[in-house]
Specification:
143 residues, 5-stranded antiparallel β-sheet, alpha+beta
């Protein structure tokens, strides 16, 4: 099979397995949810590499792209990695590098509902990443 055709076939296969994000409603303010997620990540001994302020960007650029729709009052994505889990999933399949770093988002929609979530990863070794993210979100939403 030619490399281009193989790449296209693999891309379609991957896309077919993609699911929606895993989300959990948060009873409280956006700021409280963001603090709870940050605390839970750091509490796992992990370092937050970056916080992407997606909500601010979308609100700031809406008019520039011809939209007046407010998607989120606020939305941040906490980006981080785990040396232990990442090594484990990449030793199982080095191409799991495509899924690193990991992110947990906190979003407040236009109606004021706050949600915490993360992407659904492929079955197999990446389930260890999902377990870590689920543990962090559980800690953030229960405390």
């Amino acid at each position: 099979m030619k490399p281009v055709i193989l790449a296209a076939a693999l891309g379609l296969a991957t896309a077919a397995h993609a699911e929606g994000p895993i989300t959990v409603p948060y009873e409280g303010s956006f700021d409280d949810a963001a603090f709870a997620v940050e605390t839970a990540i750091v509490g796992q001994g992990l370092v937050i590499d970056y916080v992407s302020h997606v909500g601010e960007m979308l609100n700031r650029t809406g008019e520039d792209v011809g939209s007046d729709v407010m998607l989120f009052k606020e939305a941040d994505i906490f980006i981080f990695c785990s040396a232990v889990v990442s090594r484990e999933v990449m030793e199982a399949d080095p191409m799991n590098i495509a899924h690193c770093p990991y992110g947990i988002f906190v979003a407040e929609n236009a109606e004021g509902a706050v949600t915490i979530g993360y992407r659904d990863y492929p079955d197999g070794p990446m389930e260890k990443v999902e377990a870590l993210l689920a543990e962090i979100v559980k800690e953030a939403t229960e405390n």
